[in-house]
Amino acid sequence: MFDVVGHSEDRESWLELRREGIGGSDAAGVLGVSPWSSPVSVFADKVLGSDNKDSEPMYWGRTLEPVILEHYARETEREVTSDGRLLRSKEYPCMQVTLDGRQSGPAGERGFVEVKNTRFHLKDGVPQHYWIQMQHQFAVTGWRWGTFAVLVMGAEFYWKDVARDDDFIDGTLIPAELDFWDRVQAGGPTPPADASDATLEALKRIYPSDDGETVTLDGEFLDDDIQRQKCAAIVAEGKGHLQSIDNRIKAAIGDATYGLLPNGRQYAWKARKDGVRVFRAPKPEEEQAS
Fold first, then answer.
1. Residues 195, 48: contact at Cβ < 8 Å?
2. Alpha carbon 290 to chain centroid, angstroms
3. What pLDDT, on a 0 to 100 scale, did the predictor assign at position 285?
4. Residue 252, CB-side half-sphere exposure with 13 Å CA sphere
5. Residue 52's pLDDT is what?
6. What is the pLDDT of residue 133?
């Protein structure tokens, strides 16, 4: 069902091998449902290469992985082995995956463990991008069950079994990944652009400079142009309205530092060391239950 082509312990080689196919962490991006990537950004990574720099979450996730895996084995009393192998599908060589761990079920059936050090809660349901990652792992290994071992915000541990979904794998995942990989091998066309920051940054990488030439855009962009003008007008109106509200609040705060609303939300208008006052409004996610 699969070949072993590398191991995460040989990090430099592993990073190069990852460019040769679509990995589990790429799958949700290819399908356009990842919070961190997009079809365009994954395309750029495969064609141009990635900077391979660890973010803080990536570093801590890799560092804590053995600890989380060991705790999962102890809590479940399942037979668990740390893995790290890079597996490549024999049927679809563009699909590959690096397993965090593998395990055996009560009847000896093989499964894998996907370790997450995250802010996402999975108790009430697996987020779509995580679920797609695991379905990709099923597609590569051919196995039928796996488990998320999750440490949330460094303070809460739990685990959740997930079953294979053949309809999704055969009907959606594999066709989408094969189409995507055809684009990569051909060097284009670039996947359709979406509104994500990941796509914006990827387009800067794909097209780092301009040549002074003019291209004629297709007629389909006429509607885009109309919609953009409407959006720009709405943004301009909203920006002016927002500034008016902010100024009213600043005037009400006056010489004070904070303005506290009856519902507990707090605005700040603080002076820096250079004497410039900086206005800060509470973020939407900081809304308090009434």
1. no
2. 32
3. 54
4. 13
5. 67
6. 97
138 and 256 co-located in one domain: no
183-228: pLDDT as tens digits: 999 999 999 999 999 999 999 999 999 999 999 999 999 999 999 9
The answer to whether residue 214 sits within a structural domain is: no
Q: Which domain holds residue 241?
A: 220-286
188-197 LR contacts (CB < 8 Å, sep 24+): 190/40, 190/43, 191/38, 191/39, 191/40, 191/43, 192/39, 192/40, 193/40, 194/32, 194/38, 194/39, 194/40, 196/38, 196/41
**Helices 39-48 and 174-186, interaxial angle, to 10°?**
40
Supply the DSSP symbol for 130. Answer: H
CATH classification at residue 94: 3.90.320.10
Is 110 in the same domain as 171? yes
pTM of the model: 0.82
What are the DSSP E strand ranges found in 105-195?
Answer: 110-118, 145-152, 156-163
pLDDT band at 171 (very low <50, low <70, confident <90, very high): very high
Q: Is the dihedral of CA 77, 83, 86, 90 positive or negative?
A: negative
Does the pLDDT at position 287 exceed 60?
no
The answer on 253 and 191 residing in a single domain is: no
CA 251 to CA 8: how far, in whole Å?
A: 57
Gap between the Cα atoms of 7 and 273, Å rounded: 51
- What torsion do the CA atoms of 189, 195, 198, 204 make, to the nearest 10 degrees? 60
Alpha-carbon distance of 139 to 128, in angstroms, equals 16
* 129 lies in some domain: yes
